[in-house]
Design a protein that fits this description.
Blueprint (H helix, E strand, L loop, with lengths): L1 H32 L5 E3 L14 E2 L4 H32 L18 E8 L5 E8 L22 E7 L4 E7 L4
Parallel strand pairs: 1-3
Antiparallel strand pairs: 2-3, 3-4, 4-5, 5-6
Length: 176
């Protein structure tokens, strides 16, 4: 009788633990979908050799997306501080041809994002993020890498090393 009760308790506890795990997964998925921007996580393709070499496909968790967001905020501030300084220097040097903007200041709001997470040859998780302010009215950006020439700060991308908690290779499209 004691064995039957003991087995019954183990079964109940394991079912309860399973419910907690399912609930956590559902909450994590709903948090992913409730971000304030449109995004997609694309599987790395070896043909994207200009983004990564010697890479293995990886995944992203909600926690990692949150970490990325904090790193992006730092990136935006640092970039925009540099751009404002360049604007002031230009206007001081060329007062007869002042600029009103640099076309290279960035923001996070109003962009769609493509995330490409990988594990590099050193075992570090790196995420390439492609930002686009215009998808030309298509949903292609959700399934394939979106590439645009020119466009200024309407299109930019960056790599984030999640192990080091740093960004690098910020690329802002040029202006034609």
């Amino acid at each position: 009788m004691k064995n039957t009760i003991f087995i019954f308790l183990i079964l109940i506890l394991s079912c309860d633990q399973n419910k907690k795990t399912q609930k956590t997964e559902i909450n994590e998925k709903s948090e992913l979908n409730s971000q304030e921007f449109d995004y997609v996580i694309l599987d790395y393709q070896p043909k994207w050799y200009w983004i990564f070499k010697d890479a293995q496909q990886s995944e992203l968790t909600q926690s990692e997306l949150n970490e990325i967001e904090e790193i992006l905020k730092v990136m935006i501030k640092e970039n925009n501080d540099i751009q404002k300084k360049r604007l002031a220097e230009h206007n001081k040097t060329y007062p007869e041809h002042p600029w009103t903007e640099t076309r290279y200041e960035l923001k996070l709001e109003g962009y769609k994002r493509q995330y490409v997470p990988i594990i590099n040859k050193n075992g570090q998780k790196i995420v390439w993020i492609n930002f686009l302010c215009d998808d030309f009215g298509t949903d292609d950006w959700k399934n394939q890498l979106f590439e645009v020439e020119d466009g200024g700060n309407c299109y930019y991308n960056v790599k984030i090393n999640l192990n080091r908690k740093e960004y690098y290779e910020l690329g802002i499209n040029g202006s034609a």
